[in-house]
Design a protein that fits this description.
Layout: H1 5-8, E1 14-19, H2 23-26, H3 28-34, E2 37-40, H4 46-49, H5 59-70, E3 74-81, H6 101-118, E4 123-130, H7 145-150, H8 153-165, E5 170-175, H9 181-196, E6 203-206, E7 209-211, H10 217-228, E8 233-242, H11 260-277, E9 282-287, H12 320-328
Parallel strand pairs: 1-2, 1-9, 2-3, 3-4, 4-5, 5-6, 6-8, 7-8, 8-9
Bound molecules: (3S,4R)-3-hydroxy-2-oxopiperidin-4-yl beta-D-xylopyranoside.
């Protein structure tokens, strides 16, 4: 049998996969053999665990944590503060109006205490704040209900609350387009200012939703260098390398075109070579899935097409990209 991915990079970083209640069944063997960390794809998001003010639903999150225990895997928590998959009730008062800043922050505190507290023995790192930086334009922060109601304070508060709930957990700021020069500089600016205010933040998560064409290795390197200069640890939190450019909306391919998987192997090799150079600052590399039979990309940004982003194919067999990494290690 082929070498295990997690062993190949044992001296470098943890190797993770996003999972859900279906994939821990359908991919159990693959996950157990190659990965030593998991992230819940959706099951720990606000709307999943806290759909109503008085109701917490931890069944699915608990299943994933039990799976990790069974296989001796680490768990990353994802995520506490986000503009998506967050319950509407959170932002409303009892008359369906907008809640006050004080109440919103108190709800965040209470939510964080409950969720982070529940998993304090299992989850070693949390994506505390996800995607608050604006992609375009001059403004630093993305428009959101969080920002409307609480102003920028909610970011620092979220980290303080998470730290109170589990002082041992590593707390991350997580975002995408993290290698884009403009966004990279904004993420840097935000995290630097949090550090200057004494906010408990320990790492930056680079989602790493990449493809065969973007970003360039130079931009990835520049992002790693810049973030690392803050003295924080870095993790790739949601890695996938689609065969399609983001703008490519084609839906006609039922299998990869000739050359695509070879090209993908080259990109994976170059990326992991680079990551290994930074093994002192990069503590984990998590894929947003494990094998090409299931990836969120097959419904985003184009519905219903295959993207073949991973190291393992639809039958969980190693792809050319896997073989390249096996030689690297
Ligand atoms: C995605 C999940 O993979 C999908 O199943 C869900 O429908 C939407 O969210 N950035 C993140 C992740 O931080 O939480 C997102 O996960 C992918 C983009």
């Amino acid at each position: 049998a082929e070498a295990a991915l997690k062993d190949m990079f044992e001296a470098d970083f943890r190797i993770g996969a996003a999972v859900n209640p279906r994939t821990i069944r359908s991919q159990e063997h693959l996950l157990a053999r190659h990965f030593n960390s998991i992230t819940a794809e959706n099951e720990m998001k606000f709307v999943s665990v806290h759909p109503e003010e008085e109701t917490y639903t931890f069944d699915e999150a608990d299943q994933l944590v039990a799976f990790a225990r069974k296989h001796g895997m680490a768990v990353r928590g994802h995520t506490l503060v986000w503009h998506n998959q967050t319950s509407d009730w959170l932002f409303k008062d009892s008359h369906d109006g907008t809640v006050s800043k004080a109440v919103l922050l108190e709800r965040l505190r209470s939510h964080t205490q409950t969720v982070v507290g529940r998993y304090k023995n299992d989850i070693y790192a949390w994506d505390v704040v996800n995607e608050v930086i604006a992609d375009e334009g001059e403004s630093l922060l993305r428009p959101s209900k969080w920002l409307d109601i609480a102003g920028p304070d909610f970011i620092a508060k979220a980290f303080h609350f998470a730290h109170e709930a589990d002082p041992k957990a590593l707390l991350f700021y997580n975002d995408y387009n993290e290698s884009n020069p403009l966004k990279r500089d904004k993420i840097y600016t935000l995290v630097k200012s949090l550090l200057e205010q004494g906010v408990p933040i320990h790492g930056i998560g680079l989602q790493a939703h990449w493809n065969l064409f973007d970003p360039s290795l130079d931009d990835i390197r520049a992002a790693i260098e810049k973030y690392a200069s803050l003295g924080l640890q870095l993790q790739l939190t949601e890695l996938d390398i689609s065969v399609f450019r983001f703008e490519d909306k084609r839906t006609d391919l039922v299998k990869p075109e000739p050359g695509m998987l070879e090209r993908q192997a080259e990109v994976y090799e170059a990326v992991f070579r680079l990551l290994k150079e930074y093994r002192e600052v990069i503590s984990a590399v998590t894929f947003w899935g494990a094998a090409d039979d299931y990836t969120w990309l097959d419904d985003f940004p184009v519905r219903d097409r295959k993207n073949w982003p991973f190291l393992f194919d639809e039958r969980h067999q190693p792809k050319p990209a896997f073989d390249r990494l096996a030689k690297l290690a």
